[in-house]
Amino acid sequence: MKMFNIKILKAFEDNYMYVVYDSIKKLAIAVDPADSNIMSSFINENKLNLKAILTTHHHSDHAGGNEQMNLKYPEAKIYGGDTRIPKMTDIIGKHCQEIECIGLKFICLKTPCHTKGHICYYTDNLPTPIVFTGDTLFSMGCGRFFEGDAEQMETSLNKIIAKLDPKTKVYFGHEYTAKNLNFVCSIEQNNGELKKYKEIVDNTLSKGEYSSPSNLKDELSYNPFMRTSESNLQNILRTDNPISTMKVLRKMKNEF
């Protein structure tokens, strides 16, 4: 018998870390355990056996806890798609490469742009599929193009992540949702459905709850970075194709 849970842990100012664990067998996976103290406290208090660490990318606010985690849990494998990731034991070499951890099969999606080696981790082995998107996809936004361009982000978001099951829960890397929604509403001031969605999220956050996970269906409906093919959005931005729309959106968001 397996009973999987997902624990959301906050780190630093706005980072999210995650623990996927089997509450019966006490086996666990850590996702982006940047603050090793917070992560290890949860693992130890719940008497979990950490079997793997899934690292989305090499930035220190995601991978910076890997060295300490490796010292504390030397048997745990550390997965990633970039040789700059500290203490990585298993590199993800191919798009859609499959790995198995604690009885769950994850499909590793190569989503370069924020960083060249960014990986999103997807599994449909749970009652509702989940994906850990790091700094590629945020709720109502996306990561900055530090090591890539608009064409790469267009592919990552709208040719890879957008093709997942729309019921998928999206576990992202930062709590930027309120700021992202303010930006989106400034662009689409006449979008009534978007305003209703913003009210729901604002109410959630006002109660001290997390906006993670969002669900992919909502991202496809409201997140402009996942709607770059829509003519209404292109008309507002005065663009004529998805890549130029992605480029303009990111520039506007950077300056917002």
From TrEMBL:
Metallo-beta-lactamase domain location: 14-174
Molecular function via GO: hydroxyacylglutathione hydrolase activity; metal ion binding
Pathway field: Secondary metabolite metabolism; methylglyoxal degradation; (R)-lactate from methylglyoxal: step 2/2
Top enzyme category: hydrolase
InterPro entries in UniProt: Clx_II_MBL (IPR035680), HAGH_C (IPR032282), Hydroxyacylglutathione_Hdrlase (IPR017782), Metallo-B-lactamas (IPR001279), RibonucZ/Hydroxyglut_hydro (IPR036866)
Cofactor(s) in the UniProt record: Zn(2+)
Catalytic activity, EC: 3.1.2.6
Gene3D superfamilies: Ribonuclease Z/Hydroxyacylglutathione hydrolase-like (3.60.15.10)
SUPFAM superfamilies: Metallo-hydrolase/oxidoreductase
Top-level taxon of origin: Eukaryota
Keyword annotations from UniProtKB, A to Z: Hydrolase, Metal-binding, Zinc
Catalytic activity: an S-(2-hydroxyacyl)glutathione + H2O = a 2-hydroxy carboxylate + glutathione + H(+)
GO BP, one annotated term: methylglyoxal catabolic process to D-lactate via S-lactoyl-glutathione
Family affiliation: Belongs to the metallo-beta-lactamase superfamily. Glyoxalase II family.
Protein name (Swiss-Prot/TrEMBL): hydroxyacylglutathione hydrolase
Organism field: Intoshia linei
